[in-house]
Amino acid sequence: GAGIEFSNVTFGYSPEKIVLRNVSFSVPPGKTVAIVGPSGAGKSTIVRLLFRFYDVQSGAVLIDGQNIKLVQQQSLRKAIGVVPQDTVLFNNTIFYNIEYGKIGARADEVYEAARLADIHERILGFPERYETKVGERGLRLSGGEKQRVAIARTLLKAPVLVLLDEATSALDTNTERNIQAALSRVCANRTTIVIAHRLSTIINADEILVLKDGNIAERGRHEELLQRK
Ligand code: ADP
Ligand code: ADP
User: Fold this and answer.
1) Tens of pLDDT along 146-177?
2) Is the ipTM of this complex over 0.85?
3) Closest ligand 2 atom to 140 CA
4) What is the CA radius of gyration of the chain?
5) Most C-beta atoms within 10 A of its C-beta, which of 109, 153, 164, 203?
6) Cα gap 47→185, rounded to integer Å
7) Is 69 in the pocket of ligand 2 (CB under 6 A)?
8) Residue 157 in contact with residue 108, Cβ under 8 Å?
9) Is the pLDDT reported for residue 93 higher than 80?
């Protein structure tokens, strides 16, 4: 996994509207951080800054100790798997979508059978439908099913860092929990995970950051945050 760090990051989409103010946090390699907070708090913005969709106005975003401004876009894209809020799938079979994930996969990173089974059976969850076309009439995938395809596709790239932006929002809580559990098994000790989510129902996060008004208002493990309430 890759270690990540936000060092005094300030960012706004315009000078009048600063979204993140002096935000600092770090995630050790292979750990999971959940970023929670109400809509508009800046969760997606943090995710976008991590794959350098935008540059910060001050401070720095570092991956493995290196300022991402100094890292080639191509190697950044190779190292990071992103599942954005509204994933777009190819208008082709699930199989095609999944196979596409392997293009650009790091050749040195091959999943062993148990991790592959977790991806196919627990995260994707409906391998019997591989030949189904994503847009096919009568077999159309639900929003939640599309999200599962998108997460599986991203994991098959074997990224060192996975960014999930409300990537399980269309699923029921129970399925969401099961997918979170499978995700931590697949990524255990090798892939760093950043999850942006409205609620702190996230389980298995090593740390939860609560964003409020462009700042980290609280941080800690799930139990710790509950105790302080
Ligand atoms: P969250 O993911 O927590 O809902 P966002 O990071 O999407 O929050 O948004 C934080 C703030 O930045 C919001 O006020 C939002 O309206 C604004 N914002 C988000 N994206 C853009 C954009 N592309 N241009 C201008 N403002 C934006
Ligand atoms: P979501 O609310 O998760 O986006 P949808 O309402 O899109 O879910 O779909 C729920 C279920 O209905 C899914 O199993 C999907 O395959 C099926 N479905 C959705 N649209 C159609 C359709 N036009 N014809 C047949 N089945 C559909």
Assistant:
1) 999 999 999 998 899 999 999 999 999 899 99
2) no
3) 16
4) 17
5) 164
6) 22
7) no
8) no
9) yes
